[in-house]
Every structure is written in C-alpha cells, then in structure tokens.
Amino acid sequence: MKNESNHNRRAFIKKVSLGVCALTIVPGHVVFGRPGRVMPSDKVNIAFCGIGNRGRQIHKDFMDTGMVNNVAMCDTDMGAPHTLEVLQAYPNVPRFQDFRVMFDKMSKSIDAVVVGTPDFSHFPIAILAMSLGKHVYVEKPLTRTFQESELLMNAASKYKVVTQMGNQGHSDANYFQFKTWVEKGIIKDVTKVVAHMNYNRRWHGWDTSMISFPKGQPVPETLDWDTWLGTAKQHDYHKDFVNGQWRCWYDFGNGALGDWGAHIFDTAHEFLDLGLPYEVDPVKIEGHNPLFYPQATTLDFKFPKRNGMPPLIISWYDGIDNLPELPANYGQSELADGIPAPSTGNIEKRKLNPGKIIYGKDLTFKGGSHGSTLSILPSKKAEQVMANLPEVPESTSNHFENFVLSCKGEEKTRSPFEVSAPLSQVFVLGTIAQQLNTKIMFDRETKQITNNNLANNLLVGAPSRKGWEEFYRL
Questions:
Q1: Do the Cβ atoms of 143 and 424 come closer than 8 Å?
Q2: What is the pTM of this model?
Q3: Taking a C-beta distance cutoff of 8 angstroms, is the pair 336, 365 a contact?
Q4: What is the CATH topology of the domain spanning 2-170+463-473?
Q5: Engineered SS bond to 280: which of 35, 67, 172, 440, CB 3.0-4.6 Å?
C-alpha cells in the first residue's frame, strides 16, 4: 500500500511539472477568470503546513484575523506534544502528514497555503502550491539555498500568485517610518549598517571538534521521518535535528543570520536598494565547524554604489559576547515589542538587545528588531531634523492581515518574494562564508561566486534525494 501511495504522489508531481494541474485545478474561488483571486466578501481557505512550535503561533495569528477558514492541516509529526494543541482545537479539519497527499486530495478546496516548517522544507511546499495556483505565505528565511530563493522568485512571476515572507515586522511601524524617512531625505548617504543579535543559540557550547553527525536514534511513532527530510540529504533521525534544533545545522537551517536577519536589516535592504553584495568577508568566525554554525560570527556584507547612493557595508554580529562598538551617544538598548517567544522559553532583555545602528553622512540612527522604530542619536543636526519630522503613515494591516487582504485583491503584500527572495539570498551568502570560513566574491550580474568553486556549488546545494527532484522543475 505504501509503495502504491508513493507512486501516486510521484505521478501527481510529474503531472504538475508538465503543467497539467496548473491549468486544470483551480482554487475554491475564481474571479474575473484569474485563478486564486478570492471575492472580497469571502473568507480565504487556508491550508497550514507546520502546526507545531512556530507554526502553531502563525496558525493562531491567521485565525485571529477573522478572515480565513482553516481547511487543512499538515505536519510530519502528528500527535507530538507541540502539535496536539492545534489538532485538538480543530478536530474536524482534515489532517495530513505529507503535503503532497494533501494537495492531491484537497487542491480544489484550498486558496492559500501557509508554510511554517523548518527552513530547508519551505521550498518544495511553496513551489508545489504556487504551481497549483495557490497563494503562499512562507516563514522566514525564505529558503535554505540561494537557488531555491531564485526559483521561488521566478515562480511568483510565472504563476501570478500572492506571496509573502513571514518577517512580520515588515508590516509594522519601522517599515513605514524607514520608507518615509528615505523618501524625505532624512535617511541618506548611508555608508554602514551594524546589525547585532547576541542571544544564546541552541548550538552554543557544542563540541566544535565534531566531525560527524550524531548517531541515529529510533524514530518517534508519531513522526514521518522520510517526509520530514524532504529534499534534504539523507540523515538518520536524531532529536537534535527536530523541534528547532534543525536551525543549528548547515544541512537544515540558516543559523542566527537567517533567523534574525530578516527582522533586523530588512527595511535597510529594501529601501536603500541594496540587492546582492559583491563581497562577504568573515571578519570573525569563533568556534568554526563544517557541520553546525559558529559560536560567534562577524560578517561584512559589501554593497556597491546604487542609484546615487554611496557604497555600503552591513556588519553582522552574533555570539553572546561578540558585541559591536557602540557610538558614544548610543544611550539605552530597547527590546522590541511583540517578538514571538521561542519554543525554548521567553525572549530575555539584555544589555544590548537585537537591533541595528545606521550611519549616514550627517545622522546616526539606532533601532531594534522586527517593527520597532528608529531614533536619531543626539547631535546639532539631529535637533534640526527632529524639529521638522514628516508625518509617517500608520499601518493599515498587520503582516497576516496584509497577506489575506492581498489574496482578496484589497492590498499588496509588503514582503513579496520579489523583495524577500533577494534578502534571503543575502543570508545564504553569509551562511556559505560561515560554513567555509572564507571570503566570498560574488558577481551580482551572473549571480555566481567567482573565487571559490565549492562555495559556488553551495549556491545550489547537494542534489535532492531520489523522488524529490521534480520540485526543482516546476
């Protein structure tokens, strides 16, 4: 029976890759002949992929909008403690352990898909959904590899669906303030951005001499391990690969940079028109290991002149004691409001909380993470500017509402793949520099690493496991 099921799933994916399903299967609502467009008076029918840990939080945020129907739930670990809460709250909603089976059985009932799974598994779920005409909301970072982000960005254009990456602060006050201050010339001539995140990470304290992955353990009865692995390289199950631990490993996650970068320098990346760097320099790699992320990292991302703006360096700092130098008039470090608590506990306030420092020609700004607003560090020039600040629009919707309203044709998403895919590619270039502990020289035109063949190969990553190759042809 299992072999027959696998055969049916493979046949389904192959049909999609030939364009058959993309043409014949449409969502529950079609308006003006455009697949996926939901009537403004209707609720959006959403399938949730990943309903435990962070996926559980995202599920709640979408249900709180009051504008969606929960029509399907998918998680590879059904019945584990972290998925039981949602399963018990929605006992009559269809549930699946394999997203391919979910689409095979329920595609016609789904308008949009929310992906709250580990970094490495975002791509296959999102690309299949898009090929079927489904709108997609994908948690940050968008993908684990550079190529996967490129493919999703191209697919968004090809399939004409609504897309949104889940850096929720991109719909809050900092987004509108940064945009307005750039347009009004308050933020200008920026030459350096310091982005810092110095919380303890799951892999801190691990043995950095490790040369092999942990020995396999028995697979929990509730977990479909083969589907959990998806397109990733083959690994035996181990508890240090699941429930957030996947973020520790280059094979599965994007480390601290992928976790927090999208919440810290997302507005600078978009509104300073940064695009992709031409160089990534690992200024400091403490506790390097080829399997998991460093104990501390300082990376310099170098961007060229752009549209009349000067060259710019983003300096990224992670690691508990790897703190950047602060301006003399920096003042107190504030902790941003509304940061979702990790599954391991609450966000702790520290001497230096996650945030950024933006150095312009005449003004220096400091800010936190997520949607927290910038302040201008004291100076005579700052006094003049502060006396005549422009009005900043308020957000019309939070990030989740913005996605739903966009599915209904009432708004446009603020973190669509055309914006969030290049941002995620910046993170991937940083993780390659971390993994190889080497400087990356990047050609922005050809999108190739020019000084290291192994690094260039990592833009694509290892070949997919057998049976998962079709996703890269959708």
A1: yes
A2: 0.93
A3: no
A4: Rossmann fold (3.40.50)
A5: 440
